């Protein structure tokens, strides 16, 4: 998405000291507070190069609104507060100045594959793009902040971005898909196809499968950045055209599913703005091609994201839209999952009766069993996931005993081969037990999660564990709780 450039001279605005932020620093020195920021970033899978100078610039009012990475870290450090509570200006009030050099790609997080790069996608995606503009629009600082934004931006990604921006087309696309071991014969021979064929479509579909499998086993954090290049490559293949209409249909469906997969990686690693953008792009693709299965999937993910982002009413609406799109697809299991997405929204709205109705509908549909019409992407949805999502609903409603009961079932039913979900359900169990006044059992469950964290990278799970640790702090003299808190504090974090 293009953003307007400002060519006028910088505003003469006199910085106003950020006294609220200074109060939060307390008695710590700027250097000590910067170290605390870096530790908090590692807890949620972020990487920021915060130092005493950055803290000084914030407190002096030179940084009116932090970039998205720092925003996530600060809100993690001070739960329940908003940016305004931390002394920053609302992002909407400072938007419009560009902190990057002219012509540079938006961000290491934000892909350069927007459907606007293709005339056909531009028309179909205009409405969805407008709805997600906030994820792409720049923020204002008194000067450039990029020196502090140290998210991985590997040389390979830079080369790929430059190649796409100069229109290298299917050659770079096929080579980029090789990131996941999916190079096509044409790419291997150095002969890029003028148009994509069945080989490229198959490679794209296999990329989706591989990303989903790796996420199931290891979580999203380390995978998200690696998946950006195949996604850009997929859009380049789409723009190159296809030899047949059937192949073009496969490419559109594959690109949509890959966009949703990468969006989920962003979602699970706490990058909600990025995820929202990916989901909107997939929805635009679905609407353009009349792909009901893809539309149902896009709305399903949007509902889940809205719930996690604290927009429960939007979660309900998106889940209901997904059910309308899925109504004629013949998959009871898909409708069951979508009913659970709706239940999550109702739980967020504290509407217990509506939540219970949606949960009952989800169980009834699930009991009809699997069918050939079930989408491939729903391979994760079994009895364990059903129990895990229901546990989240009861947790949101504050019924900790019932939530713990379902979370325990989810952890017990989950295939241990999928480490990430086992850790997720057990972390849910630990949190429910802690909040339900059972600290010893909560600590034991938390320790089981910690045993798995050398195999899993998921900001979602790390955030849940941090919340559990805070709840258990008053019980830190209890031996089991003390062991959990000590191990949690020493847990290696990877960004």
From TrEMBL:
Region of interest (Disordered), ranges: 86-153
Compositional bias annotation for Low complexity: 103-126, 135-147
Source organism of the structure: Streptomyces echinoruber
Name listed for the protein in its UniProt record: Tetratricopeptide repeat protein
InterPro entries, alphabetized: TPR-like_helical_dom_sf
Signal peptide feature range: none
Superkingdom classification of source: Bacteria
A Pfam family it matches: TPR_12
């Amino acid at each position: 998405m293009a953003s307007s450039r400002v060519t006028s001279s910088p505003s003469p605005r006199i910085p106003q000291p950020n006294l609220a932020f200074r109060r939060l620093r307390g008695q710590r020195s700027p250097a000590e507070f910067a170290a605390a920021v870096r530790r908090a970033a590692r807890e949620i899978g972020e990487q920021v190069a915060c130092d005493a100078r950055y803290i000084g610039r914030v407190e002096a009012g030179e940084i009116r609104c932090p970039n998205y990475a720092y925003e996530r870290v600060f809100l993690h450090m001070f739960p329940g507060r908003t940016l305004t509570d931390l002394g920053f200006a609302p992002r909407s009030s400072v938007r419009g100045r560009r902190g990057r050099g002219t012509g540079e790609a938006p961000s290491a997080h934000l892909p350069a594959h927007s459907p606007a790069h293709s005339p056909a996608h531009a028309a179909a995606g205009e409405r969805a793009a407008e709805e997600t503009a906030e994820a792409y629009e720049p923020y204002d600082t008194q000067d450039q902040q990029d020196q502090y934004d140290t998210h991985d931006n590997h040389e390979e990604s830079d080369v790929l971005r430059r190649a796409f921006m100069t229109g290298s087309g299917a050659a770079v696309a096929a080579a980029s898909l090789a990131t996941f071991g999916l190079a096509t014969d044409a790419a291997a021979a150095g002969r890029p196809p003028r148009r994509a064929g069945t080989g490229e479509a198959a490679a794209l579909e296999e990329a989706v499968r591989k990303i989903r499998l790796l996420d199931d086993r290891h979580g999203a954090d380390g995978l998200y950045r690696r998946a950006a290049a195949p996604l850009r490559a997929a859009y380049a293949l789409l723009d190159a055209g296809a030899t047949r209409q059937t192949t073009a249909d496969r490419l559109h469906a594959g690109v949509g599913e890959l966009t949703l997969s990468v969006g989920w990686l962003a979602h699970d690693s706490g990058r909600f703005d990025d995820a929202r953008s990916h989901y909107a792009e997939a929805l635009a693709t679905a609407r353009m091609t009349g792909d009901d299965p893809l539309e149902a999937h896009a709305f399903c993910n949007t509902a889940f994201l809205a719930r996690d982002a604290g927009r429960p009413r939007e979660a309900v609406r998106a889940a209901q839209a997904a059910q309308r799109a899925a109504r004629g697809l013949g998959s009871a299991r898909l409708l069951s999952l979508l009913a659970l997405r709706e239940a999550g929204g109702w739980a967020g709205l504290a509407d217990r009766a509506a939540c219970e109705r949606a949960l009952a509908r989800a169980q009834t549909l699930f009991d009809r069993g699997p069918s050939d019409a079930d989408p491939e992407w729903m391979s994760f949805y079994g009895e364990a996931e059903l129990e895990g999502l229901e546990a989240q609903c009861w947790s949101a409603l504050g019924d900790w005993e019932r939530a713990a009961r379902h979370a325990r079932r989810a952890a017990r039913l989950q295939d241990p081969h999928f480490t990430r979900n086992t850790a997720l359900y057990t972390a849910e169990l630990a949190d429910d037990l802690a909040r339900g006044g059972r600290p010893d059992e909560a600590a034991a469950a938390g320790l089981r999660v910690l045993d798995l964290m050398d195999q899993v990278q998921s900001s979602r799970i790390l955030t849940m564990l941090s919340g559990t640790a805070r709840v258990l702090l008053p019980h830190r003299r209890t031996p089991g709780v003390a062991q959990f808190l000590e191990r949690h504090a020493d847990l290696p974090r990877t960004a």
